[in-house]
Amino acid sequence: MELTRYGIIDNKNKREIVLLRGSGCKWKRCRFCNYHLDKSSNYAENHAVNLKALSQITGKFGKLEVINSGSFSDLDEKTIDKILNICKSKGVNTIHFESHWIDRHEALKYKALFEKELITVKIKTGVETFDYEYREKLLCKGISTEKAEEIAIFFDECCLLFGLSGQTEQSMLKDIEIGLLHFERVCINIMEENGMPIKPDFGVIKLFNEKIMPQYINNPRVDILLSNTDFGVGAKENINAK
């Protein structure tokens, strides 16, 4: 399937975004996520796909977000070198990338690599919820700490996943406020059907739309993705990020 791999985010934290392809998520156990399907073990083919997306970067905002199925460290080295060179040549001074908790130490190594070239790095991770029991027993997220402040040692930004059975107005508000307390930015994703065991709860989604979204829609530190393609990349069949 041909995916849209380059987009422009022109509200709030304006930036260009690319959806790249790597070797795939090492965890692959999350019961809500099928993003790990966008992968290949052929590094040369991945690099060719990635070059096509990266060639569209203009540097117009000076900010770039790089996402892929898994962690930034799952990209091939030639692609990472190309990203670094494009940042330098196009005047990109801030790059956002993603990492799973299990790759947190690798993420910090790449952060140091880019910051050595005076490029600010913001690392995002999918927490989904700060309710440890719900996250680990139901979602199987694979984050070994219960403490948001320990997650924030490694990551600057977090993703939350709403629209799940058992979530309430109070629980979603609590997740957002914990996220804003410990992280620079919060990205809220709304669950969509994707063939995985965890299904969207449309009653919870309605509750979010009516009660919670109006409180945060204009918050400059909060991104809200009602659809997985709201950032302009991906496809309807690849739903709900890490």
Coarse morphology: globular
Helix content: 25-40%
Low-pLDDT runs: 236-242
Counted by DSSP, the helix tally is 7
What is the N-to-C succession of helices and strands?
A: EEHEHEHEHHEHEHE
Largest sheet: 8 strands, mixed
Strand content: 15-25%
Structural class: alpha/beta
What is the end-to-end distance? 20 Å
Can you count the beta strands?
8
Mean pLDDT: 94
Lateral strand order in the biggest sheet: 1-2-3-4-5-6-7-8
**If you compute it from the alpha carbons, what radius of gyration comes out, rounded to the nearest whole angstrom?**
17 Å
Care to describe what's here?
It contains seven helices and eight strands; from the N terminus they run E-E-H-E-H-E-H-E-H-H-E-H-E-H-E. The chain has helices at 43-54, 77-90, 104-115, 132-138, 148-151, 169-182, 202-216, and strands at 6-9, 15-20, 63-68, 94-98, 120-128, 157-162, 185-190, 222-225. It has an eight-stranded mixed beta sheet with strand order 1-2-3-4-5-6-7-8. The chain is globular.
